[in-house]
Amino acid sequence: MSELKDPLDLAETGDLSKFSKLEATLVHTEVERRPNSISQDGVNRHAETSDLVINELDFDFDLGTDHYPLGDLRSLQQVFDAVQYHQHLEREENFSLATRVECFKVDSQGGEWRTLDETNMDQLLQVIFIKPPTWNSRLNILKSYATSPLFPTIKPFPGRNMLVFFAPLVPIEGTSYGARILMTQRNAKQLLETLHVNPLFMLDMIGRPDYWAPQTHWEADDKGRLLACDLFCQHPRWNLHTQGAPLSVYVRHDIIRDLTTYIISHKEHDTSITTLKSILNIALNVTSAINKPAVFLDDPFDIHTILSTLSFEASKFHVKRFRRFMWKQMNKVEDHLAGLEISDRDKLGDLTKQLQIMSSSADSHIANADVAIITATAIRNAHSRLIQSLPQSSPFTNQRADDSISYVISSMEKQRIWFLNYKQRKDSTMSLVYNLVTQQDAGNNIQIAHSMKQDSTSMNAIAALTMIFLPGTFAGTVVGAGVFGGAIRETEKVLCFFQWLFVPEI
């Protein structure tokens, strides 16, 4: 007895009796490869000539050791960073002819505001560029500090400093990202290279509008000891009705110099920046001389955390505004449903447009919430790692910043949940409006059909009357035309015939 074979085996041997016609067709049909898969030179029929020769990575790679940061190259990752840095640094349109930057400077003696022009910027950076102490000398200071009887009331590094640079951006065409920083090209180069700023921050500093992920960078010496860390990011713009340059924030904490540096590029009159300056002024005026260094200098990520908090607070205004707009449209739909408003097609059409605006606004707010969550999470992670490496850090003091940023993250996650819920409500309401319009169209179609039926009845009556009077009209026309050559007798016979045919006997 022969062993039964699987239908697929039968198909491979040519026996197609077990297959349907469709399956047999698939077996017999030869599947040809796409021409592009063979030649690898296919061009889309919609392509333009410029698409054939486009260079997506059009950079100048002719760089040497005199280009920052290639003079002290420590990682292969820094090479392309340097390429992008110089791509935008060389464009003079990105920079102003004069420097107008505000700087908030804090040290162990107190704090002050400075308005920097090109000369003042040079002088400030020259002071910062003083060679910092070595690791060994700093470790010796730490050892003596740890064994001091006054521990922990004294601070080991009286030379701690913090610099906060506020660099406005003004919109102008012909620049890399549609904005120009109020700083000369020379000052910008000097600022970034003197403070060893991550070269990629150059893109954000001149107004790059895309919310790319936050970036961190950690520097260590040959023995693996942490020298510095930095973090830069962009905060979301919650006002959907106006644009302007984004708020970009860079922080670098140099452990050797004990220097915290912030570079904040922003549009002019940015509300978060105005509020931040007010907060710094209040702290500067009310804090005692003894506590002032601790308030400003103990946690390098304080300002980063405050800006995230301000971004969240600013979102509340726009979220509330969105809710009012949403409920206004929802109430209109309910009024139509309850019969309080006449379901006019124009009104329903306008309502559909408003619901679409609501949908796009909800999408934008969801994206902003995602950006805020990613940014705040990066700040919290970098803050946690840095605090563990700081020699003078206090876990409980630095916990305040961690708690604040964790609150922002949780609140933004909750806000995102609400917006997803609003979007679902919008989808349900949009479906309801569509059904109302469809029902109205169906009612209009029924009314049109009824009118057409009435018109059809009238046309039938007119046709019947036409059939009654048409023969007589035809006869009169024929007789009046003299078709019978004027023969009266024959004409009378014809008239008698039609009279007998159409006029009933009395």
Would you write up a description of this structure?
The chain crosses the membrane at residues 461-484. Keywords: Membrane, Transmembrane, Transmembrane helix. With 506 residues, the chain is α+β, with helices and mostly antiparallel strands. Helices cover 55% and strands 12% of the residues. The chain contains 15 helices and eight strands. It has helices at residues 7-12, 21-28, 35-39, 49-52, 77-89, 118-128, 135-146, 185-194, 201-205, 271-286, 292-297, 302-338, 345-389, 395-480, 488-502; strands at 101-107, 110-116, 161-171, 179-181, 215-220, 226-235, 247-254, 259-267. Helix 6 packs parallel to helix 8, helix 10 crosses helix 12 and helix 13 runs antiparallel to helix 14. The longest helix is centred in the last third of the chain and has 86 residues, at 395-480. The chain is elongated. The protein starts with 6 loop residues before the first helix and ends with a helix.
